[in-house]
Design goal:
Blueprint: E1 3-6, E2 9-16, E3 21-25, H1 39-42, E4 47-51, H2 66-80, E5 85-90, H3 92-103, E6 108-114, H4 123-139, H5 156-164, H6 168-180, H7 184-188, E7 196-201, H8 206-218, E8 222-227, H9 234-237, H10 239-251
Parallel strand pairs: 3-4, 3-5, 5-6, 6-7, 7-8
Antiparallel strand pairs: 1-2, 2-4
Helix pairs in contact: 2-3, 4-6
């Protein structure tokens, strides 16, 4: 598998298909495997680039901040000569896509934010996530899924296995990055000139649904799409529908 070597060490990535470039950024407890159901549906129309973000998958463990994650995307795009490219991000990757568009607006054609959130967790949610950081140290990365999916969900074991493939040290670094983030992304939404598709599952958590509504209000060029019957992982729960919506939004299909 190709590797980009930079200040954070090795970032593993893969390319699939031909066409206009599309970068897929995954969520905090995921890795590039979270896009496995999407890639076959996208690679016929896009040069699809997936990667293991720092501290996840096969990439090296390093400090995780949104600024660093944005720098990694910019370095990968420069390394592969992608600009201008489409960018879709799930969960934590959604804010990465937005922050990248603020810092490198000229490199982005359009963005899709899937189940994204703009502010760090607070109150009981923050306390729960802090507890998860400790649980990961004792029981491994699989337990990190608990804030986002319950054992009753049909995809619970798949999501848990995906998270378990990440190293405990890397997962803890990523979760700390989420906890230590600020809310500055909200004030920067008006600076994003690229068109943005905001995707939210009907059954996603309230903070994510509220974030979707906020983005729809404040982004200058935004479409809001709610997927019925879907929770926090549209990339796994509704890959065919999501891929079709990305094709429609990015390429004007359908």
């Amino acid at each position: 598998m190709p590797v980009l070597r930079g200040p954070a060490g090795a970032i593993h990535y893969a390319e699939h298909g031909d066409g206009p470039p599309l970068v897929l950024s995954h969520g905090v407890i995921e890795n590039m495997g979270s896009w496995d159901r999407m890639v076959p549906r996208l690679s016929a129309r896009f040069r699809t680039v997936v990667y293991d973000a720092r501290s996840r998958g096969r990439s090296e463990v390093a400090e995780v901040t949104y600024e660093a994650l944005v720098d990694d995307v910019a370095a990968l795009a420069d390394h592969l000569g992608l600009a201008p490219f489409f960018h879709a991000g799930h969960s934590m990757g959604g804010r990465v896509a937005l922050d990248h568009a603020v810092a490198h607006g000229g490199d982005v054609r359009a963005i899709a934010v899937i189940s994204g959130r703009l502010v760090p967790p607070s109150g009981e949610s923050r306390a729960r996530l802090l507890a998860v950081v400790d649980e990961v140290a004792e029981h491994g990365s699989g337990v990190a899924v608990s804030p986002w999916i319950t054992p009753a969900h049909p995809l619970y074991h798949e999501v848990r296995d995906l998270s378990a493939a990440n190293s405990p040290d890397g997962t803890r670094a990523a979760l700390r990055g989420l906890l230590d983030a600020d809310s500055s992304a909200v004030s920067r939404l008006g600076a994003i000139e690229a068109p943005v598709l905001v995707v939210i599952g009907e059954h996603d958590g309230e903070p994510f649904r509220e974030a979707a509504e906020l983005m729809a209000e404040r982004l200058p060029r935004c479409q809001l799409l709610t997927l019925p019957g879907v929770g926090h992982f549209p990339n796994l729960e509704a890959p065919e529908r999501l891929a079709a919506e990305l094709g429609r939004f990015f390429l004007g299909e359908g």
